[in-house]
Amino acid sequence: MRFTKQLLVRVLAAIAIVAPLAIMASDFIRMSIVASQKVDTLERELSIPAPRGTERAGIMRSHKSRIATVSEKYVGSASTPGTFDYYQAFFEGHGWRHCGHSIVRDEYCRDDYQAIVSVPSAMGSGTYSLTLQWNQITWRVWLAVCALIGIASLAARMLERGGGPPSSKLPILLYSRLSIAECLRRLDSAAEKNIGYYQRTSVDNRVTFELERRRGRFSGGLLAPYFYGVLQGEGDSTGTTAVGRFGFPPRARAGAIGLASLAALSLFISVFLGGSSSVEWIALAFIVGTLGLFVNRWRLRHEKTEIIRFLASALDASEQKPSRRG
């Protein structure tokens, strides 16, 4: 049963690694194709009559994923104020809005497009230049990339660990003079209303158990501190060592399934539906939800102390190994 669960977690982790990489690769290819098509659209938009006394002197086209740019250089005797006034009248008359201004450039915006008039030319030579740009690198894109990288990183960590529960660096060690049987009896009888005790396996002189703070069904404990412990009998059967670590509760596997499902859904939308912002909003929802879970885990960090105190009290244990009496 344990092997089956670990295998399931490994498969889900592998999906959660491959899916984000596939999403980013498919988005890069698809948006590169869209950008190449946008270059032709921008070049047609750039066929604007030149002001009197100037003429076209060269054009430059470029594109990459989510960005397309077409720039045209002009030479002539037009003045800077006259050039700015000419293009302001043209763009505002065609539905563009004035969205930026400095001494050497004017900017106009319309939907996903931006027009930039630069005096002198931004192309290195010429009287001035006119640039039309389509740019889809938005804050949502950056959030989506961060979320997808976060998914892949978490999944890689799970895969490296082999599906086991996440753990702290140093184990918690407690020593008791009581036998394993007495420790188990005390844990059963000492279980409080707010501390849950679960015995899992018992093999020879070794018993695994788990502890958590009890809470309501909808109290937000998906990533709450969860103690994975082992009771190991001493060689003379008169003492017991309790060793354990804090990790995520078993129900967090449902979160891993949801993570893999979200990654698969994002991949489906990116490849088959092709909306430029749909994946970004899904990634945004993911990153906000994940952040909320970890903030809640940080808020419940005091529960680790409560669980350790309960365990030490129930087993009459301490961090120092008791000395043997002759």
The average pLDDT is 77
Structure annotation, total helices: 7
Count the beta strands: 11
User: How many domains, as an integer?
Assistant: 2
Global outline: rod-shaped
- Largest sheet, spatial ordering of strands: 1-2-6-5-4-3
Low-confidence stretches: 163-168
Task: Characterize the main sheet.
Answer: 6 strands, antiparallel
Radius of gyration: 32 Å
The ordered string of helix (H) and strand (E) elements is HEEHEEEEHEHEEEEHHH
Beta-sheet strand percentage? 25-35%
**Helical coverage, percent range:** 40-55%
**What structural category do the secondary elements indicate?**
alpha+beta
Description of the molecule:
Helix 1 (2-45) runs antiparallel to helix 3, helix 1 (2-45) runs parallel beside helix 5 and helix 5 packs antiparallel against helix 6 (278-299). Helices cover 45% and strands 26% of the residues. The chain is built from seven helices and eleven strands. The two termini are 45 Å apart. Strands 1-2-6-5-4-3 form a six-stranded antiparallel sheet. By secondary structure, it is of the alpha+beta class. Residues 163-168 have low confidence and may be disordered. The longest helix has 44 residues, at 2-45. The chain has helices at residues 2-45, 80-93, 139-160, 180-190, 252-273, 278-299, 303-315; strands at 54-64, 67-76, 97-101, 105-110, 113-118, 128-135, 172-176, 195-203, 206-213, 226-233, 240-247. The protein has two domains: 41-136, no CATH class; 165-315. A hairpin with a 2-residue loop joins strand 1 (54-64) and strand 2 (67-76).
